[in-house]
Amino acid sequence: MAEETKPTPETPASDEAKAATPKPAAAEKAPAAKKQKAPAIEDKPFTEFMQQHFTPALQEALAKQGLEDVELKFAKEKLPLAGAKSSEECWQVIGNLQKGKRQFNLYFVDEDINGKKAFSCSTNGGVPSTIESFMIDERKSTLDLLLMYTLQRLNGQKWLSRN
To answer: What does the pLDDT read at residue 55?
Structure first.
């Protein structure tokens, strides 16, 4: 039987022997690059998000609630408050139901879905008498949250179903 020779601390192994020693498989592979997540749709520019995502999703959600005659418009307009003489404009989602008999407005004062938002509604073509804060407790707004709160607010008016 042939004896195996092992290098001792006094006799270091040659460079060739070190190079020939197999390395563990984990050490050879570089860590794989993590997949880049696509940016959230809420990170898109405000107007793009509102036109391409929120308004169509709201239209679809209202249709699922049985409202087929909904007209939605996204525009920068003055606040439609009775007695208000403000010339300040802000982005709004304006919804008309029942051929204009009911109207609601979602106001985005800061031109940001995470900024100040408000809600108003009116019936029979009238001008809204009050404007209410909207989603003030949410730090980060998402498409799903915006839809849920809008539907919840319209349901509070008993516009979606009879309570």
So the answer is: 94
Q: Tell me if 10 is assigned to some domain.
A: no
* Residue type at position 92: Q
DSSP-assigned letter for residue 52: I
Cα–Cα dist 33/36, whole Å:
9
What stretches of the chain show up as alpha helix (H) in DSSP? Answer: 15-20, 25-28, 46-49, 55-64, 143-156
Domain count, the chain: 1
Q: In 3D, which of 83, 80, 82, 84 has the Cα closest to residue 94?
A: 80
Element spanning 48, H or E: helix 46-49
Q: Which domain holds residue 141?
A: 66-156
The C-alpha angle with vertex 91 and arms to 73 and 143, in degrees rounded to 5, equals 75
C-alpha–C-alpha distance, residues 49 and 41, integer Å = 7
93, two tokens:
């989602």
Q: Is 13 among the domain residues?
A: no
Amino acid at the residue 52 = Q
Domain contains 56: no
Q: Residue 12 corresponds to which amino acid? A: P
Q: Distance from CA of residue 90 to its chain's centroid?
A: 20
Mean pLDDT of 145-149: 93
Residue 68 reports pLDDT greater than 70: yes
